[in-house]
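User: Please predict structures.

Assistant: First:
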Amino acid sequence: MVQQWNYVRRRLDRIWRINPKSEILPDLLTRGYRVVSSKEIINYTNRIKTPGTLKKLDCLLIEVRQREMLKPGLIFANFSMKGPNDSMISFYSLNSKLTLIEFWGTDCFACRSGHVSLRKKYDRFHHKGLEIVSISTDKNKEEWIKSIATDKMDWVNVSDLKGWNNELVKKYFIYYEPTYIWLDKDYRIISGGLNDEKIEKFLNE
């Protein structure tokens, strides 16, 4: 990974010296951001930022900041949000062995089709300690409730109906749907996705 970044950095430096306003620079930086520290990416971003590259670099910075907020081992913040029946739900009160946080929206096709798979996981593992918490980025309550019923989302559903201005969306720099975040029993973020075998392992610990 270090070798990959060194290659990217050499190209960045060479192009930047020739043309500091080159729109290729953000694309090169994107190729290397996953293998180096966020601090180094931010330093390079500030160095090559121009009006022509601003939009691409801002998108990259959102990804970098999300990576920092969702580092494995960090504790996911407690929150309280209303469910479909307007009752306030406190996240830490759920006390599950393993939790899947899902950020989704009713107009997101990938989210809706993904609920088939989530329903299978929930039916198989909920009694062993798995909880799913779906956080909607919707504003229309009727559409939200209708979609919950249609998709048979029998797990925990919450929303503040503020759309993308949801506090957790802003806190964790959520910029695409669906976004899945796995948490252990202490609400610590788990690296990557979990297949059924890994879910079983966590629930048996």
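Second:
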Amino acid sequence: MDHTKTQHSCHQPQSSHSGTGRDDATADAAARDRTARDLKLLAPYLTGNRIPETATGKTPKEQQAEQEANERIAKLQKDRLIPQLDRMTSAIHPKTGDVTYSLSGKAAFVDRGKTISVLEAQPASTRIALEMAVQKYGRSIAATGTPAFQKQLADAAAQMKLDIAFTDPKIQAKFLQSKKELQEKEEKAQAALCCAPKQSASKSRSDKSVSTKTNA
């Protein structure tokens, strides 16, 4: 999940990790630049569900990327794996095949195939992007982002009761804490409901008797 200003991403965990913090920062900067460039190129198409058929000059690789993107969209729509997608529109990047999903006319996140980049870190778009990540990548989710976004992601996963694990220990800790707090809140609500005072049958009959005498 990426943001145009701050990096937010979900993707499949890598089998091995290497590099330095400087390498990560360089990669983050490149991803932000790519997202900004993609948004600029996609601007004319974000109001519709497909790139116009009249688009020309595509290489075989670009045509294949677009076809694969259309197949990803069709599968999600056909199987209704993510019902919330019905509320969104999608646009396919003409060169890369990346799919940008928009909510209420505003670009929300980009499905890049191996990663999902969040453009607007709002609760609704984060929840849908997270659900898509689970459908695409399985129970093990690798995510990056600001502490605020990590907390939002962890809270969303707990509220959705997702059976997943984050590879980042900090996000996983937030997720487990959110699950614990939510469970405690639900248990307190259930206990309060069970312990609520109930009107006895004898008192109910007495009240009815008094009411009848008064009416008489």
